[in-house]
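Students often ask why inverse folding is considered easier than folding. One informal answer: many sequences map to the same fold, so there is more than one right answer. In these notes we will look at a single instance of the problem. The structure comes first.
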């Protein structure tokens, strides 16, 4: 989009585009998590966090109560995915630490036992993440998010020019 087109956009149009993009990515991550694709849980948490942040930063452009409620549900969802993601991070750090040591010090069980223990813990954590995806609360969250994004509850500020409103909102945090 050219700069003249951006100047003529309302703050709401820009925000709606952003929210739509990340709501779609969240839906894509849902499929990836269910397929147990690498890094999918992390990316799903990233999308959830981006949506929460946008709802907080740009709340004056929206109906504040609806934005807060949606933000709270996204926070719940991110926390539901945390145990699985935390174990992924621990495994990454542990693998790096073991790899950094001389091979003669990490032969045999030193390399395998920690990874096996993490995988054992990861199975129920991943199952809990999948349960969160099947939870009626998540289904309701997705429905609310889709409805919110397709027809945002704008405040008067959302109709103002993006070039005037958005830089001020970004400067606040």
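Output (designed amino acids):
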């Amino acid at each position: 989009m050219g700069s003249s087109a951006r100047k003529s956009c309302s703050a709401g149009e820009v925000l709606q585009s952003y929210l739509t993009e990340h709501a779609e990515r969240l839906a894509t991550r849902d499929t990836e998590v269910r397929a147990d694709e690498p890094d999918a849980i992390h990316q799903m948490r990233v999308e959830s966090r981006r949506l929460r942040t946008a709802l907080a930063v740009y709340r004056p452009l929206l109906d504040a109560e609806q934005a807060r409620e949606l933000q709270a549900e996204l926070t719940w969802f991110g926390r539901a995915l945390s145990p699985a993601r935390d174990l992924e991070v621990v495994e990454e750090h542990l693998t790096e630490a073991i790899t950094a040591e001389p091979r003669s010090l990490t032969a045999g069980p030193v390399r395998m036992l920690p990874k096996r223990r993490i995988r054992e813990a990861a199975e129920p954590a991943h199952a809990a993440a999948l349960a969160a995806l099947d939870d009626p609360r998540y289904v309701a969250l997705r429905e609310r998010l889709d409805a919110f994004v397709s027809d945002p509850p704008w405040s008067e500020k959302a109709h103002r020019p993006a070039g005037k409103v958005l830089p001020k909102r970004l400067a606040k945090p």
